[in-house]
Amino acid sequence: MIFLDLIPTELLYKSISYFSPAALIAGLIFSWKNRNAQCLIGLLFVLEVIDTLLLDTVWEWGNNYYIWMFLYCTLYVYVVLFRRAIAKTLSPISSYFRYVYENYHFTKHEGLLLLIYIICLLAALTSLIEIKLYQYKFIESWTFTKYALGSILIPATFIEGFLILKISLRKPLTLSVSKKTKTQTEVTNFMDKR
Q1: 107: left (phi over 0), alpha (psi -120 to 50) or beta
Q2: Are 157 and 150 in contact (CB under 8 A)?
Q3: What are the angstrom distances between the C-alpha of 15 and each of 131, 142, 181, 189?
Q4: Disulfide: which of 87, 152, 158, 171 matches 123 by Cβ 3.0-4.6 Å?
Q5: CB neighbours of residue 83 within 10 Å
Q6: Lowest-confidence segment of 20-34, 70-84, 85-99, 174-188 by average pLDDT
Q7: Is the pTM value of this prediction over 0.85?
Q8: pLDDT tens digit string along 121-137?
Q9: For the segment 150-168, what is each residue's pLDDT rounded down to a tens digit?
């Protein structure tokens, strides 16, 4: 990404690091009518807070930072894929999670978000393998991590933020019991007429 070379690296990464939390906070505010979106964004926000709190500790790990990066990406994929299971586990604690569990739906935007997280997961895994191979002198340079990782993670962060905002602005999908009953009755009447 040529235009990114003009911006000082430290400023670029600091700016980008504020984008995800800002998108998550805005997403939580905008999704006040949609409990499914609220639950997903809330769980992602909890992961972001944990990552922020542990970041200074993890930076001290040196090359093992990429292990954390890989695990962190795995947790994001887990939250998107298994949000219903998480809601089921937490449903005895709160009726909020019971509602999310009973009215769960997976949207195409969540699928795109999952794709972004999987791309980041694969990039983190590639960096982890490359760094370990470099650390144990199997390879002489860490080209992917040095040149390609940032070019993958920077756009992924922006796309993630926009997808979170898109998910938060979606109207909740609800199908009332009366509509279900009416549709079932229409189908039954149609079948009886045949």
Answers
A1: beta
A2: no
A3: 26, 25, 52, 61
A4: 152
A5: 20
A6: 174-188
A7: no
A8: 999 999 999 999 999 99
A9: 899 999 999 999 999 999 9
